[in-house]
Amino acid sequence: MNPSIYSFLGLAAKAGKVKTGDHTVLEEIRKQSLSLVLIAGDASPNTKKKFKDKSSYYQVPCYVTGDRDGLGRAVGKGSRVIIGITDKGFGGRLISMLDE
């Protein structure tokens, strides 16, 4: 994953626009309050399937990218498997960066 994506993810975290953790992100997907869901590439197959399916059902963009340690460092925490972006601006920019 491009290092600038990690930096931008850190900026979103400092702005308070990031949710982490399975339960929290799942609730936010159901509320349709997320603009993007990121899943670590080294997450378990069951976790990837669960979040891809939920994101698809609730029409929230979902990407598998990076690894749990990299995502965690980017948001200033320990390793993170699931990250949700709550802001449309940050989410849109991250999607365009991931699509490059």
Structure write-up:
This protein has helices spanning 3-14, 22-31, 45-57, 68-74, 88-99; strands at 18-20, 36-39, 62-64, 82-85. By secondary structure, it is an alpha+beta fold. The chain has a single domain (3-99), classed as 60s Ribosomal Protein L30, Chain: A (2-Layer Sandwich). A 4-stranded mixed β-sheet has the order 1-4-2-3, sandwiched between helices. It starts with a helix and ends with a helix.
Write the element-wise H/E pattern from the N-terminal end onward: HEHEHEHEH
**Widest sheet: strand ordering:** 1-4-2-3
Number of helices: 5
Largest sheet: 4 strands, mixed
CATH class term: Alpha Beta
CATH homologous superfamily caption: Ribosomal protein L30/S12
* Backbone CA Rg: 12 Å
First and last CA, distance:
11 Å
CATH topology: 60s Ribosomal Protein L30, Chain: A
Helix content: 40-55%
Number of strands: 4
Strand content: 5-15%
Shape: globular
As for the number of domains, it is 1
Output mean pLDDT.
94
Low-confidence stretches: none
Helix vs. strand class: alpha+beta
Q: How does CATH name the architecture? A: 2-Layer Sandwich
